[in-house]
Design goal:
single chain; 114 residues; mainly alpha; 2 domains; 6 helices
Length: 114
């Protein structure tokens, strides 16, 4: 990212001194498109996401995890092993349901092919 001082110098050279964008790019050793962006924004715009962040892989299971944690509220600290076993069982159930509801499984069920 370019520093704010460079932004100011480039903007001053182009807008006040009358230097062309191409000449400013050559003088400061930057791309002409960067000069255009520097003229469009008075301060560096910073990082902008092109799309929203992806949801975590465990997102479908957050309700199950919260329920398990709430149920384990009174257990001692070593209950993590029990929690992991419960989560694995819930994951297996979810996988079975997903397979059962998949279009591939339904097509086999209607044609009688297994």
């Amino acid at each position: 990212m370019k520093v704010v001082e460079l932004y100011g110098r480039v903007r001053y050279a182009v807008q006040i001194e009358g230097l062309s964008r191409l000449e400013a790019a050559r003088q400061f050793g930057i791309d002409p498109r960067t000069v255009a962006k520097m003229l469009a924004f008075s301060l560096p715009p910073g990082y902008r996401r092109s799309r929203p962040p992806a949801r975590p892989m465990l997102d479908p299971f957050t309700g199950i995890i919260d329920g398990l944690l709430a149920a384990d509220e009174g257990r001692p600290r070593k209950a993590a092993a029990y929690l992991e076993a419960d989560l694995r069982a819930a994951s297996r159930r979810a996988r079975l349901l997903w397979r059962w509801n998949s279009p591939r499984h339904k097509s086999k069920a209607t044609t009688g092919i297994r």
